[in-house]
Amino acid sequence: MTEATNDAAGANDTVGTRRATGPVLPGTDAPLAEGELVVLTDRKQRRYLVTLEAGGEWHSHAGLVPHEALIGVVEGTVVRTNRNMEVSVLRPTREDFVLKMKRGAQVIYTKDQAMIVSGADVRPGCTVVEAGAGSGALTLALLAAVGPTGRVVSFEWREDHAAVAERNVTRFLGAHPDNWELVVGDVTEGLAERSAHRVILDLLEPWTAVPAAAEALSPGGIVLAYTPTVPQVMRFDQTLWDDGRFTSVRTTETLVRPWDLDGLAVRPAHRMVAHTAFLTTARRVPSREEGGPPPPRRKADTGGRIDWNASARASAPAAAEGTEG
Length: 325
Ligand SMILES: C[S@@+](CC[C@H](N)C(=O)[O-])C[C@H]1O[C@@H](n2cnc3c(N)ncnc32)[C@H](O)[C@@H]1O
Known about the structure:
By secondary structure, the chain is α/β, with parallel strands linked by helices. It folds into 2 domains: about 1-90, Roll (Vcp-like ATPase, Chain A, domain 2); about 95-285, Vaccinia Virus protein VP39 (Rossmann fold, 3-Layer(aba) Sandwich). Helix content is about 25%, strand content about 25%. The chain starts with 7 loop residues before the first helix and ends in a 5-residue tail after the last helix. It binds S-adenosylmethionine. S-adenosylmethionine binds near residues 108, 135, 156, 158 and 204. S-adenosylmethionine binds near residues 131, 132, 188 and 202.
């Protein structure tokens, strides 16, 4: 996998040639080289992604910086545009990149990426199938988590979105990783014939992929759905229980509150992203007939189906007691 080459040795290769052979980890003790992706930050903390090229120029409302002024400097160096605006240069983190990369579809941001990686226990060596690839933001997090010994398969049924995912992943990692397969197709059709340790679903109707996820996962495997709304959570949960091959269904939501640090004014920021999505995870188990666990006892036990009228009847005692008429 390409990211595995992002080490000091890879970076040192660039010192002599001043041409990066691949991406270099931020914080590596090597000057910036031609071909590297960098993030420029101005005085107002606006950020710009730039690929350094010989003869290239970065243009802004406040003047230009020739790439030659950036090639050969160390991370954190400040340079000035020809109109005297200061900008600093760093190698981008994955978060920097995701916030600035081209998008075909709404992306999953780092707070949820981190919880997906830990909630679905994605670790080195895992085979993960995800759908849809969208803009490739989660793909980058999954590739980092599975490492060079793992594998990521991304289904995306829209060719235009798949092209954006391909472009973003390749741009950040320097090349299409050997351990990444991007499949243009419907996950509900292609997933069942795959074999995976984890299945991660970020699509409008994740419940449509539950039967195929049960086929792809062996007992003990984990499925996770990222869903913005409560009805989606309810339907996904219902479908998991109806399938009979999943247990330990759990839903969480993650709130990250940024803080301002300015002298004595140290307090939560006035604005935060209040809601992105719910994460619902479940473990694949054998069905009851195959020796798996019994379905859980639930407070509203309606035989596996939600009775949408139950609460309305409960709050209308007169009608329930048959006193009408
Ligand atoms: C919200 S985007 C995914 C964003 C992605 N997780 C990221 O972080 O960049 C959802 C994607 O799922 C794709 N999609 C929806 N249903 C699908 C299906 N059944 N098979 C494959 N892709 C599907 C859509 O075309 C869309 O690109």
